[in-house]
Amino acid sequence: MNNEITFPYPYIVERLDHYYGLKSHFPKKVIPTEQPKKRNPFTKGSKKKFSILIATFWSYPHVGGLSNYITTLSKGLKSQGHKVDIISPNQFSTSKVKKFRESVTPNLKSFFTKRYGSYSDRILNHKRLIYVYEKMLETIDLEKYDILHAQDLFTANILGRFNEIYGKPLFYTPHGMFTFNRIKFNIIKKDSVEESYFKELESKAIEYASHIIVLSDSFREPLIKLGAKNRNITTVITGIDYPMSQRQEKETPSHKLTITCVARLGPRKGHNHLFEALSYIKKYTTNIEVLIVGDGQMRETLERQKKALGLSMVKFLGSRDDVPLILSKTDIFVLPTINDSLPLSIIEAMHSGTAVISTNCGGIPELIKNNKTGIVLEPGNSEQLAHALKFLITNKEARNTMSTNAKNFAKKHLTIDSMVGKIKHLYTDFWEMN
Questions:
Q1: Residues paired with residue 85 on neighbouring β-strands, in sequence order
Q2: Each residue of 281-315: pLDDT tens digit?
Q3: Which of 17, 172, 200, 434 is most buried (most C-beta within 10 Å)?
């Protein structure tokens, strides 16, 4: 196995060399002068139809916002007559993936050890995954696509490298956590080799991208710090195809008021703060039920907290496939997250016509206009959350006003048609300029 496919891309090695105080010597890469002829999908008098590749480094389909986004975008584009292929690592042969992993791991260890005297397990494992995914993508005929759309920075790096030959419009939509957040949540250490590695990948993804499509304006500042130009970033808020169900009316005045939280039971979703808030306002919870929809690593911990705080009104429903029905019976939706981008659960709750309480994280304030379409709090502040819950529990008029405003906003701004129309417009502009 030669060096070019063993070590991370030359720009990664240059960054690591700089970190370790070494001098890099890499020849300039020569790009073929004869590039494949671009196929024009627009014939005179025809509608503009594209062949589009949507690619992600993460498993697809999967539970979560990224998978939902890809499904929504693909469905919307196909409904307009475009051809869409979705590529992810889990779609490739398991035996081939295993063979590639087994062959590349010792070579990577040898490269890093000889060059730097040691290696980072995190970088080694990550580079191995990128290498395997790249070998899989090499089997795809990229020439047949008019548009390439990477759904993460790792795919943007791989497609960007391939695209030096093809010259296609390459769009990049970041979904996940930036390096500064990895440091904030102690996933990696500041000034570590891992920080250098991931920051270089982030910067190169920006450089390779023809344009960056972000889910909310909250992505702009970190991208600009990494070298992106504001003019090269367009915000397109996620839209969904939400079922047109009627809200379930309460049968009697004595029927319990329902509070619902739909989220993975993970440490960053803030369920513990919701439980603390409920414990502060127990005298207002005699006629309410709290439905916790979702599952995850924190379930046992949260069940113990519920018991310790005496929160008999809380019910764990686990993972459910009838979320729209649950939301149709919900009076107040709560997502007490302490780190997020643009939660799909909030968009669903707004479509359902539910008053929403959430936090000032990521793009949430772009969805929830405080005291108009819901209430926005500081993350991790259980006392603020208790106050907001008390206000909406005891104020039906405010609850109904926020519910109506949220639904109207969702119908206007958070639909598939709105989302896909804006993205297709960007595709068209960049194809015509290319």
A1: 53
A2: 999 999 999 999 999 999 999 999 999 999 999 99
A3: 172
